[in-house]
Amino acid sequence: MASSSLAPYANLFDLTDRLILITGGYGHLGRGMVRGLLAHGATVVVLGRDENQFKATFAEEIPDGALHFVSCDIATTPSVQAALAACRERHGLPHVLINNAVYSAGQQPDALTDEQFARGLDGSAGSAYRCLREVLPYLRENGGGKIINVASMYGLVAPDFAAYDEYPQFLNPPHYGAAKAAVIQLTKYFASYLGAENIQVNCVSPGPFPSESVQAESGFVAELQKRNPLGRIGRPDDLAGAFVYLCAAASDFVTGHNLVVDGGWTIR
Hints:
Blueprint: H1 2-6, E1 19-23, H2 30-39, E2 43-48, H3 51-57, E3 67-71, H4 77-91, E4 96-99, H5 114-141, E5 145-150, H6 174-194, E6 199-206, H7 212-215, H8 218-226, H9 237-247, E7 258-261
Parallel strand pairs: 1-2, 1-4, 2-3, 4-5, 5-6, 6-7
Helix pairs in contact: 2-9, 4-5, 5-6
């Protein structure tokens, strides 16, 4: 009796039957997401532009057959279409798409050109929409699935500019936050639009997760730490659980949600 009553809960986070596609899977945050998914049995396909960087990131640490690379430039529709078709041919129908990659141009808040502003918007919101749109036929063919977009704490709150007084090179530009806010709304829109088709659309908003190169500036790291309730910056593995959860059966009744993983940054 006890074992049968517990059976529905035994595999809530088991991803052994899931084919998960992720853009930006070999970057600072992406590698933590990928490793978390692999640890729970998923088959992962990284969509990216640099296969050599992919191989260098995951050299000799991944179970055979569990991790793959497909060339893709998320800035162009033909490349996204070709990559998804290749995934279908080589690995079957996907269960999950994670929109994690980003690109941008320009930083000075009051001096961005029209072209820079447009590229920053496209690099987060436009690319997420592009990949979402193109993956839908495959998810529909599969009877449903999940889409997870990656936003940011700066899609929720404005920067504390005092943190950047002595470190202007790290200043977060306005088109980044505007684009990430758009990603959150895009998530809600398509969660509503696709719910009847058994497609859940959710979002993760990371907080202060500076890259290794930024972490070399210890003074700036200290500025971030003192502004965060948990008193530290995020590590890539701090994100892994959020993505395992949103990819797994545990989240099958969750859609349109923005899961904030920020050490408490946005509660103040």
